[in-house]
Every structure is written in C-alpha cells, then in structure tokens.
Amino acid sequence: MGASLAGIRACVFDAYGTLFDYASAAARCSDVLGEQVAPLTALWREKQLQYTWLRSLQGHYVEFSQVTSDALEFALAAFRLSDPALHARLMSLYGRLECFPEVPAMLAMLKAAGLRTAILSNGSPAMLAAAVAHARLTHFFDAVLSVDVVGVYKPHPRVYQLAVDRLGIPPAAICFLSSNGWDAYAASAFGMQVVWCNRYGQPPERLPGTPAAEINSLAQLPALVGA
C-alpha cells in the first residue's frame, strides 16, 4: 500500500472508475445485452478514452457527454446492436452510475479529519452534478471540477492546474486519486502526491511520474493521509 503521505491538505478524485463504477450502466441492461455486457463495457470505455485523447490532439474539443455518446455508438455498432432506444437507455444510466460501496464512508472520514475534497474529471458539469447527486455525495465535496473550463482533456497539465487554482493549495499538498494508471502517473508528473487506486490490477505504466502509493480500494485511503 505504501507509506503515509505527509503534508496533505486536500484529496482530489477522478470520477469515472475511481468514485463511480462506469460498468454499472451496461450491467443494468443485462436483460438486453446478456453475455455482451462485459465486452461492450470494455469497448465503450476504451473508445471513450481514445476519443478524449484524439480530440485533445486535434484541437476539436466537445463535452464529455458527446464523447461518451459517440463512443457508445461505436461500441453498439461493433456488436451489431445499433438501436436508438438502447443507446438512449445506456446514456441515461450513465448519468446515474453507482458509486463504489466504500466511497461514502471514506469521504466521511476525510471530512471528519478536516481535509478538503474535490472531484477533477473529464466529465461535463451536468454529468458530474447528476452522478454526485444520484450517489448522495454532494455534501462531501468542496468543489466539483470539469475539464470543460479549459477545453482540453486529461492528461493535459492545464487540467491538474484547475485543482491547484480552485483550492489554492500547492500540488505537493494535494493527494490525487485515480483508478486510471495514465491519469495517476500524469498527476504525479505534474507534482501532486498520487495514490493510484488500482482496482483493475493493471501493471505499472511506462510514463513520466511515479505514484506515491498504490491501493486497490478507496477504503485504504484514510490511513494514508492521516484521517
């Protein structure tokens, strides 16, 4: 898990895959998708991330809701499931993702310890507001920050700078949490103290940056930051 982190004043979380289970949308359509739930989820997620990176490189930014819809359209077509009604149902469910079970208690411990908390996500403001409200987590966060402010997706350094500017805390005093290895490494290269929540058993990235600690559940976070 790693040694305790020193000097942390705020914990900043990625949203999708870290706080919210992006697989829960397709899982609630198992009546239609059957055994295709897992492979469809994987392809949807893969294309969603690819489109954020490609749009950032091309300079063609659109909100994450559009990226998510485009990625889903691709995935459904790949599985020969091009169905407007199914697309609409999955997009609606993506707006009401389930949070991982340990999240509420973990956030309560951080707040009780006097730490500031925020979300820093690719998600559009409306998507993030809906997810946070659905999970009844609104009161836990001091800020919910979207890349929409800077018009470019992670892992651009301008995204991580958003948290520094909004919280008024230097990078080294921020503990950044992500389940995405590429995101964790990028935040570390930016200068944040990073805890990689490696839920999916991924190998280490071959990228700049080194996470300060690695965990497999956010339930392990409070002990690392003295909460």
Task: Describe the protein.
Helix 3 (37-58) crosses helix 4 (64-78). The chain is globular. It starts with 9 loop residues before the first strand and ends with a helix. Helix content is 44%, strand content 12%. The longest helix is centred in the N-terminal third of the chain and has 22 residues, at 37-58. The mean pLDDT is 96. The protein is α/β, with parallel strands linked by helices. The chain contains 10 helices and 6 strands; from the N terminus they run βααααααβαβαβαββα. The protein has a 6-stranded parallel β-sheet, sandwiched between helices. The chain folds into 2 domains: 10-21 and 98-224, Rossmann fold (3-Layer(aba) Sandwich); 24-94, Orthogonal Bundle (DNA polymerase, domain 1), CATH 1.10.150.240.
Q: Distance N terminus to C terminus?
A: 16 Å
CATH topology title of the largest domain:
Rossmann fold
Oligomeric grouping of the chains: single chain
Which consecutive residue ranges, at least 5 long each, have pLDDT under 50?
A: none
Number of strands: 6
Classification by helices and strands: alpha/beta
Count of discrete domains: 2
Reported for the largest beta sheet, the result is: 6 strands, parallel
Helix content: 40-55%
